[in-house]
Amino acid sequence: MTRIITETVKLYRFEAGSEDAYGNPSEGYAGPFDVGIWRFSPGTSTDPILAGHDRTITQPVIYGPTAMGPRDRVEVRGLVYEVDGDHPEWVNDTVRGYEIPLRRVDG
Predict the structure, then answer these.
(1) What distances in angstroms separate CA 79 from CA 29, 60, 62, 86, 103, one per listed residue?
(2) Is the predicted pLDDT of residue 1 greater than 70, yes or no?
(3) Correct CATH for 7-106 of 2.40.10.370, 1.10.260.40, 1.10.3720.10, 3.40.1190.20
(4) Which of 30, 39, 48, 101 has a CA 20 to 30 Å removed from the CA of 59?
């Protein structure tokens, strides 16, 4: 049994470039690369109550055959999300794939 690619997203791979004044890798991204996914779950949004902030956090999930790194970015349906943490490969009798949590903070 194989899964059907239902949608294509744009993947921006994190590339550690030069270092900033504090020795941290500067943010650079390669891509975009078109990547097929099986499903996109729009997830939920929350509006945390923080004094002086008006922010919305959205946490969708991608299901697909391609691994993504914890600092990669993904453009889905016109919105750019950050990959939220590490995600191991899951395996069953017929299919291997990834459940990739995403995160977007507005405000």
Answers:
(1) 16, 11, 13, 21, 11
(2) no
(3) 2.40.10.370
(4) 30
pLDDT digits (tens, 9 = 90+) for 67-107: 999 999 999 999 999 999 998 898 887 888 999 999 999 98
- Give the Cα separation of 39 and 6 in Å (integer): 7
Helix (H) or strand (E) holding 77: none
- pTM for the full model? 0.84
Residue keyed to tokens 């991608």:
62
| Residue 59 and residue 48 in contact, taking contact as beta carbons nearer than 8 Å | no
